[in-house]
Specification:
It is a single chain. The chain is mostly helical and 127 residues long. The chain is built from four helices and no strands. It has helices spanning 2-20, 63-76, 83-97, 112-116. The longest helix has 19 residues, at 2-20.
Length: 127
């Protein structure tokens, strides 16, 4: 009896499910074409003025000054815990002040502009 229960249940469920399914005709699926707009003639675009050639951006610092700042900031930041950040801010200050104090710390009295620069929080900007 148990051997017939499963096939019978399967047959009954197949019959019940086929009642709810609609028969379909085998064939390629049909898709409705989207509605098309009538094509209207377009007017030619008015001629535009050619844009002038763009000039390359000027360097932020002359080559001799860049070499000066790179070497001075390299010495100034030699012992810094975060070398990249120190060199970045030292370079910014060097560009604006045209000087970097000697040594790795202190001596800011040698360059008052460098000493007096402050960040947005009111702390010294230059290392």
């Amino acid at each position: 009896m148990k051997q017939l229960a499963f096939p019978t249940l399967l047959l009954v469920s197949l019959l019940l499910s086929s009642i709810f399914l609609q028969p379909t005709v085998a064939g390629p699926p049909t898709t409705a074409a989207p509605p098309t707009k009538p094509v209207q003639p377009t007017k030619p675009a008015p001629p535009t003025k050619p844009s002038p050639p763009t000039k390359p951006a000027p360097p932020t610092m002359p080559a001799p000054m860049k070499g000066f700042c790179d070497s001075k900031c390299g010495v100034r930041c030699a012992n810094a815990g975060v070398y990249d950040r120190c060199v970045k801010y030292c370079g910014i200050c060097c560009q604006e002040c045209k000087c970097v104090p000697s040594g790795t710390y202190g001596n800011k009295s040698e360059c008052p502009c460098y000493r007096d620069k402050l960040n947005s929080k009111g702390k010294p900007k230059c290392p």
